[in-house]
């Protein structure tokens, strides 16, 4: 890997986790604390179960969005807002995670936020239109907070296997999304063609995760005493390139989560078939989410990998939108491979562009907070365009603009450089 802009600064290990919320690994006081090793298999099982719950409340809505809209009289713009709201909350509430963890401890926060996630899922199913939007807000906020905390726990408690277990975490996240996308419509049919209990069903995995996670909340590290302030990040062009790449590729991802089944239903598929196509596409992300970062870190920089995975994503999107339905599964597979790579590379860039854990934590917070807020505009734009045009064909322009922007900022973010900041204890 070429020398960074500051030659005296050591390069960051590609396997370092970008989502650390504190500086435990680099502070002597925290290093003296032993990692949690009581029943590590139970901790690992808890991590997997928590990760499995970070996407079902998002991906379960898309296959039944038409039924929800018809049942509650939602316009396409309102449906677009419904798919936008939880993604917006991912960005808006992510900055709360470090503050809550420093005050209460990461493990206790995860347990409490799992409870709010389950509550949000229930609210979507029982209070009509008000509950639908309120529950989506609560669920999105919960996912935004847990999503920042979980990889930091992986890095702290499994330091020798952080890269591998982060991959396992990412795979569990994708698996949860795929299962919810494929199973929600059959559940609705089994429950009397009623979408409400089918959406509410995904509260049960969250409750199971709470029960398994409870020992970690009792035995966790507790309140962290040391924090670092990083200065200059918001003025650094490279940091903004990483952030905008994260946001634009995420925008395409949440368009797929929120609207792909509706697009395919509009092209003639049944809701069950459309949900299965989305589920199959997400499952393919398991492959590229592991392979893409490994391959990208073997090259001189990540620019070529970023262009390749984004072009593969756009090919899959245009194929699903315009190509004959006879080849739909091939385009869905291509889409999944591309999007798994773009997401995994976005996380990898946060690590590679940071010179230490303190900078990585702050760059991660910036990339998630701003990036996911930006990403939320994509699903809303799709609903608005559909409302204005009465169809799906014009969405090709939305895909093209977002994809081209991701490539432009990805070419900047993919250079083998470090963000230029200073950090100090506070």
Automatic annotation (TrEMBL):
Any single Pfam family the record assigns to this protein: MFS_1
Transmembrane segments annotated in the record for this chain: 41-58, 78-97, 109-127, 133-154, 166-189, 195-217, 238-260, 272-292, 304-325, 331-352, 359-382, 394-417
Highest taxon, organism lineage: Bacteria
InterPro entries, alphabetized: CynX-like (IPR004747), MFS (IPR011701), MFS_Cyanate_Porter (IPR052524), MFS_trans_sf (IPR036259)
Keywords: Membrane, Transmembrane, Transmembrane helix
PANTHER family: 2-NITROIMIDAZOLE TRANSPORTER, PTHR23523
Protein name: Cyanate transporter
């Amino acid at each position: 890997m070429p020398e960074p802009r500051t030659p005296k600064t050591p390069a960051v290990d590609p396997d370092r986790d970008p989502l650390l919320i504190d500086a435990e690994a680099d502070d002597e006081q925290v290093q003296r604390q032993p990692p949690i090793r009581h029943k590590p298999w139970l901790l690992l099982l808890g991590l997997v179960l928590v990760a499995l719950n970070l996407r079902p409340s998002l991906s379960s809505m898309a296959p039944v969005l038409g039924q929800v809209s018809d049942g509650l009289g939602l316009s396409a713009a309102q449906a677009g807002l419904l798919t936008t709201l939880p993604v917006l909350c991912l960005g808006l509430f992510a900055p709360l995670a470090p503050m809550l963890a420093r005050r209460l401890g990461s493990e206790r926060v995860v347990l409490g936020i799992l409870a709010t996630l389950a509550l949000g899922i229930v609210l979507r199913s029982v209070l009509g239109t008000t509950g639908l939007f309120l529950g989506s807000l609560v669920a999105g906020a919960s996912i935004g907070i847990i999503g920042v905390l979980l990889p930091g726990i992986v890095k702290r408690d499994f330091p020798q296997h952080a890269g591998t277990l982060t991959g396992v975490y990412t795979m569990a996240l994708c698996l949860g999304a795929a299962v919810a996308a494929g199973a929600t419509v059959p559940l609705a049919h089994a429950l009397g063609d009623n979408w409400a209990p089918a959406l509410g069903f995904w509260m049960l995995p969250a409750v199971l995760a709470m029960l398994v996670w409870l020992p970690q909340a009792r035995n966790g590290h507790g309140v962290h005493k040391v924090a670092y302030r990083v200065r200059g990040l918001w003025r650094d062009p490279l940091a903004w390139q990483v952030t905008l790449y994260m946001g634009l590729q995420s925008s395409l991802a949440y368009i797929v989560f929120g609207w792909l089944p509706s697009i395919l239903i509009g092209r003639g598929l049944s809701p069950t078939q459309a949900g299965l196509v989305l589920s199959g596409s997400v499952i393919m992300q398991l492959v590229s989410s592991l392979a893409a970062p490994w391959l990208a870190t073997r090259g001189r920089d990540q620019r070529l990998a970023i262009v390749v995975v984004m072009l593969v994503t756009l090919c899959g999107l245009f194929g699903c939108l315009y190509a004959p339905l006879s080849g739909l599964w091939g385009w869905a597979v291509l889409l999944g491979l591309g999007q798994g790579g773009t997401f995994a590379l976005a996380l990898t860039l946060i690590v590679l562009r940071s010179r230490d854990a303190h900078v990585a934590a702050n760059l991660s917070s910036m990339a998630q907070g701003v990036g996911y807020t930006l990403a939320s505009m994509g699903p809303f734009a799709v609903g608005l365009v559909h409302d204005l045009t009465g169809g799906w064909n014009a969405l090709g322009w939305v895909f093209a603009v977002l994809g081209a922007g991701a490539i432009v900022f990805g070419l900047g973010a993919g250079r083998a450089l470090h963000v230029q900041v200073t950090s100090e204890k506070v």
